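Before surveying the methods themselves, let us examine one representative protein, pairing a chain with its fold in token form.
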Amino acid sequence: MAEVYIVVDGVLNIIDNETGNTRLMIPGLGKSFHKPIIDEEGNVYVVGQYNPFLTVINNQGEVLWQVNEDEYAWANSVEILEDRIELSTISGVYQFTFDGERISE
């Protein structure tokens, strides 16, 4: 099933591309101007310019983890790399494990 992922006013909407019906609505995310990223397992990574600054949601719609600390404010993008996640903000680039732990530099 092809789906469209869009964040509107802090709510992730997962829409069936064929029918146009909303499959899931997940509230409580940071307002975002960036498209969500989806990994190979179907987890969705949503960047928020306001708290939470990064939210990871599984394909059943459950929030796996979030980044809420103010040092990550105004997140610009998230990138899934081979062995880590990279979150870019106006103050720098931060790396996390796939379990949400910050990787020290």
Notes: The longest strand covers residues 3-8. The two ends are 39 Å apart (CA to CA).
